[in-house]
Write a structure and sequence with these properties.
Belongs to the APS1/VSP family. The chain is α/β, with parallel strands linked by helices. The chain is built from ten helices and five strands, in the order ααααβαααβαβαβαβ. Helix 8 links the parallel strand 2 and strand 3.
Length: 264
């Protein structure tokens, strides 16, 4: 008898919850579909490709998926649509907006500095990656460097807007890029053509000095040099976790989205 009463009580509570839920939905003009919590993998289970690509991208941006060489083959269409669509711009806008709100709270001095990465941070290589599967293809240094040498990479609009706002606050700009020394001139020209008209320093990578070193080591060392020369790094923004990890990262770091490639 107690079991029957308990069972009936559950049914009544369930009905009441559904009624309240319906009223809530009606009140706010929204209807939400509730999905059961169950395992997405396991014996006989498989992912719907689009859903798994979204989860894979989240894992990449959260730095849970690391040391990968290419995006999953099935995700080429999803990543391409993301990078070329509204969401990528919206995500970038959110990051850059928060960076600016933070910068406005800082007491600016003559040596107050903000560090920008270049590729997929200030300049976009989407014209290149659109022809190379948005990261499905293995990285081809020869082909990519030929693209860089053209000096035609457009600016990321939200990053350019942040750059201009930081300059208006009196903050000095330093670019630190993994591009090699021999590409410094073309990078400088490309930055200016894209709208980045002034900066304190443009640091490119001495591949002999940093041969075998990770991007984290290289960028940490160069930031340390800046601080040893009196620069106060208040902000640091990049598309790779290796841009913002390590030492001398600055008072606050900001990660822009980039699910196309991974640099350790």
């Amino acid at each position: 008898m107690k079991v029957i009463v308990f069972f009936v009580a559950i049914i009544i509570l369930g009905a009441e919850w559904q009624c309240n839920g319906s009223e809530h939905e009606h009140e706010h003009g929204h209807s939400y579909q509730i999905f059961p919590l169950r395992m997405k993998t396991g014996p006989g289970g498989h992912y719907i490709p689009e859903v798994s690509c979204k989860s894979w991208r989240l894992g990449v941006e959260a730095h849970n998926v690391i040391d990968w060489r290419t995006i999953p083959q099935d995700c080429e269409g999803y990543i391409g649509n993301y990078m070329l669509g509204h969401q990528y711009r919206s995500d970038s806008k959110t990051v850059c907006r928060e960076a600016y709100f933070y910068a406005k709270t800082i007491n600016i001095t003559a040596k107050t500095t903000w560090v920008f990465d270049v590729d997929e941070t200030t300049l976009s290589n989407l014209p290149y990656f659109a022809d190379h599967g948005f990261g499905v293809e293995l990285y081809n240094a020869t082909a990519f460097n030929e693209w860089v040498d053209l000096g035609e990479a457009p600016a990321l609009p939200e990053s350019l807007k942040l750059y201009n706002k930081l300059l208006s606050l009196g903050i000095k700009i330093v670019f630190i890029t993994g591009r090699p020394l021999y590409q410094q001139a073309v990078t400088a020209t490309n930055l200016k053509l894209a709208g980045y008209y002034k900066w304190e320093k443009l640091i490119t990578k001495d591949t002999d000095k940093y041969n075998g070193k990770t991007a984290v080591t290289y960028k940490s060392t160069e930031r340390q040099k800046l601080e040893e020369n009196g620069y106060n790094i208040i902000g640091n923004i990049g598309d790779q976790w290796s841009d913002i990890l390590g030492t001398n990262t600055g008072l606050r770091t900001f990660k822009l989205p980039d699910p196309m490639y991974y640099i350790s």
